[in-house]
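Hi P.,

Sorry for the delay on this. The queue was packed all week, but I finally got your sequence through. Input first:
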Amino acid sequence: MDISPLISRVARGKNGSQNLSQQEATLVFDQLLAVDADELQLGAFLIAQRMKGECSDELAGFVEAARLHINDFSAVVAPAGAVDLPCYAGKRRAGHAYLVAALQARDAGIPVFVHGVEHIDGRVTAWQVLQDAGVKRANSLHEAADLLSADGIVYADLSELCPDLMRIYGLRPRLGVRSFANSVARLLNPLRCEGQLNGFFHTPYADYMAGANRLLGQQRSLIFMGAEGEPELYADRQKLVVRQMGVRVRRLSFPEAGLQAYPKEVMDLKLLQQHSAAMPHGELDEREAIVVQRMREALDWASSGRSPERWREE
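Then the structure:
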């Protein structure tokens, strides 16, 4: 199929660009994910989408296309009550409190599937922390499902889950800007877990990602402005949270804790990794303890669908 007409529709500029349908987005991105894809078309499409901005239908279509490039996607599924935790931002200002909550959830019988990228320049990634905590890394979906059933938590890297998407994800240094591949990776849910927690950095993506999950048939997801873009709620004041349950999408509000705001200063990366490794052993300050509590509630909800009493719909 010649996808140039679809690229043309997206790339017509500020006043002329058009959104693609979910089916069209699947068709065009499936071809661009191929190893032998036209590099000029790929670059043009990524930049055109960056300038236009993605809609929910497009994001859902892009996710569907990426899933076509995951080995055994339709053959493997997570255990009941499992939670998908995509971690694609890394941290540089504070410890990984959300991973402490994930390890606690594991201990409470909630399976947690973590996926991301193992290295991000200038940041400490989820894998670097989980590796220190003894969490195993899966090389395939089958292995991930087996380890999740056996250990209650597992990590898988995008480079092994979907190398074709990783190739596009890794183009940021050449493009100069982040592409929609970052959002697609966050929505990928490779093991089709019942629940998903998803952090984002830019406000408009709350509704786009919730809408995409609704179109993808996700059972339930909590999508929120996360600390440094990771799936970590804030302790002082949570800016934006969207809850998606089937076709129902609602915004939530959390009571303010009145604590110190999230740190603004960048930490030494070695010290940050050491601190994150110590946190699961109880080395938490007051702010971190509140974050862990809130993330435990979010993980419990994502697994069971039971909302904490403190959650309020706006």
